[in-house]
Design a protein that fits this description.
The protein has 192 residues and is α/β, with parallel strands linked by helices. The chain has a single domain, classed as 3-Layer(aba) Sandwich (Rossmann fold), CATH 3.40.50. It contains 7 helices and 8 strands, in the order H-E-E-H-E-H-H-H-E-H-E-H-E-E-E. The strands form 2 sheets. A 6-stranded mixed sheet has the order 3-4-5-8-6-7. Strands 1-2 form a two-stranded antiparallel ribbon.
C-alpha cells in the first residue's frame, strides 16, 4: 500500500489521484517528479546519508530537484529547529541518537512541503520514550494540516490515530474511525 501511495508502484487496478492529479498512469519521469514534490517519506531505518551532516541530509530532496543548497539553507535550518535539532546542524548521523536521526528524517520529509507524509514504522527502532516523542511530533504536524499515513504493527501507536485501517495480505479487513478531538489523535495508521 505504501509503495502505491508513494508512487513507487502502480496500482494493478483502479486509479490513484494525488492532489487532484491521476498519477496511476503517469510516465515514469512525471511520476518521479510528483513523488519528489508531493510526498515526504519517513522510514523506520531513517535512511540518512552517513557522510552528510544534519543540514545536508535535510537538503537531499531539494538537491534531487536541482535546487542550490545555499538558497535552501535558511528553510532547512528552520525545519531542523522545528524538530528540535537546531543545535545539531553540523553533526553526522553517527553522532546522533536514534530519536535524533528520526527527527532528521522527519525534517527531510517536510522539506518540500509535501501534500502527504508516509511513515513506515517510524518508531520501530526507538525506545518507548523516544518513540512517544517522535509520535507527538508527527501528531503536531498533523494538527498543522499535514496528511500523515503511518504504518505500524504496534496497536498502541495505531490507537493514537483518528482513522485505523487494518490490512492483511494487501486487503482491508476493517476500518475504525475515532473522534478527532480525542487525546492523542491526529494520525492515520494502518497496522500491517
Amino acid at each position: 500500500m505504501l509503495n502505491i501511495l508513494g508512487c513507487l508502484d502502480r496500482p494493478s487496478a483502479g486509479r490513484y489521484f494525488l492532489g487532484g492529479t491521476d498519477v496511476s498512469r503517469m510516465p515514469d519521469d512525471a511520476l518521479s517528479e510528483a513523488r519528489g514534490r508531493k510526498i515526504g517519506f519517513i522510514f523506520q531505518s531513517y535512511n540518512l546519508i552517513a557522510q552528510l551532516n544534519v543540514l545536508e541530509n535535510i537538503q537531499v530532496p531539494l538537491l534531487y530537484q536541482g535546487q542550490d543548497p545555499r538558497a535552501s539553507r535558511a528553510h532547512c535550518t528552520q525545519l531542523a529547529d522545528l524538530v528540535g535539532l537546531a543545535d545539531r546542524l553540523h553533526h553526522r548521523p553517527n553522532q546522533l541518537s536514534g530519536g535524533q536521526q528520526q527527527r532528521v528524517a522527519i525534517a527531510r520529509a517536510l522539506v518540500n512541503d509535501p501534500l502527504m507524509i508516509l511513515a513506515d514504522e517510524p518508531t520501530g527502532n526507538l525506545d518507548s520514550r523516544t518513540g512517544q516523542e517522535v509520535l507527538e511530533l508527527i501528531g503536531r504536524l498533523n494538527d498543522r494540516g499535514k496528511t500523515i499515513v503511518l504504518v505500524t504493527h504496534d496497536e498502541r501507536v495505531a490507537l493514537r490515530s483518528h482513522r485505523i485501517i487494518h490490512m492483511r495480505d494487501g486487503l482491508i479487513e476493517r476500518e475504525v474511525r475515532r473522534k478527532r478531538d480525542a487525546p492523542g489523535n491526529g494520525l492515520a495508521a494502518s497496522p500491517a
